[in-house]
Amino acid sequence: xxxxxxxxxxxxxxxxxxxxxxxxxxxxxxxxxxxxxxxxxxxxxxxxxxxxxxxxxxxxxxxxxxxxxxxxxxxxxxxxxxxxxxxxxxxxxxxxxxxxxxxxxxxxxxxxxxxxxxxxxxxxxxxxxxxxxxxxxxxxxxxxxxxxxxxxxxxxxxxxxxxxxxxxxxxxxxxxxxxxxxxxxxxxxxxxxxxxxxxxxxxxxxxxxxxxxxxxxxxxxxxxxxxxxxxxxxxxxxxxxxxxxxxxxxxxxxxxxxxxxxxxxxxxxxxxxxxxxxxxxxxxxxxxxxxxxxxxxxxxxxxxxxxxxxxxxxxxxxxxxxxxxxxxxxxxxxxxxxxxxxxxxxxxxxxxxxxxxxxxxxxxxxxxxxxxxxxxxxxxxxxxxxxxxxxxxxxxxxxxxxxxxxxxxxxxxx
Length: 414
Description:
One of its GO terms (cellular component) is plasma membrane. The protein has about 425 residues and is α+β, with helices and mostly antiparallel strands.
């Protein structure tokens, strides 16, 4: 630029009788105001043009990625770059005779340019993350963790660049010093590094997705994963509280992911009735005749009784004692009843494991366990189905002369 133009006011003031120092400061102040006003209006005009163009492109575009760019202010930040660049060019033009101040202002504008660039990068990455969340295959992936990793590196480079600008030391010397102080850096960024490694392993091994129901007893978490970041995993518990878990804990500790159950055909019912051992006995012919009134097991009793009688007759079994030969027991018939009841229950998935089994005796009694799967996996419906089944079984026990074990209450003494 022509140095004469930026000295017009200075020459006029000096000729008017003002001393040179005051004229220089006044000339500088006026030039600064003009430069800032010019930068402001340029910024406003460029922003209006970019906004108009970006909105038109967003409406015409088939993808909605540009909508996220606009929403995250990428055009707005880019609009600042051109006026800032013009200000950098105008500094030498206005700061004639103020070399030290010119140097400081140039450093300030350069730092501002680096920060603005970082904001542009951050907005672009945020837009990418928001866009990927709209895609079904990325919706349950921890993309936010990778965005955070990129931004950490971007901010580290940006901070080193700012230090280099302020101290006038070359950037590579900062990285050399970083290598020497790597132990300190590793200590400072320990959680981030552990989180990065854990996040990659979680993603590659598909251990946890957003929306998964997980149980993590160590941290008191039992609910749905709502966010996976570089350092933490947020779980919304069923009582609507939020539990925060370190990401690296997912690979260093044991937790339970219920996704397999949710993707399967049913939710497991595994619960036992504790039968009082004193109520278990062999069945007499009169008992069998009475039990045949229970329609669900009537075919079974007819068939089984015939087989047992044929066997006992063929082997000349003395039936004066019930223990001799083959016999039906009330718990065995009840076990068959429970199995048939489950087979006919509309809420039980017949295509998955279904059995009624007797577990090892305990001091309390004989556990008779129901092992089946509810077709409805929703928690409240699952609990209703399970309660409905055991309501019926508990009510059915007396028809088989069986009793559930209960701890006797202490007798009150007066």
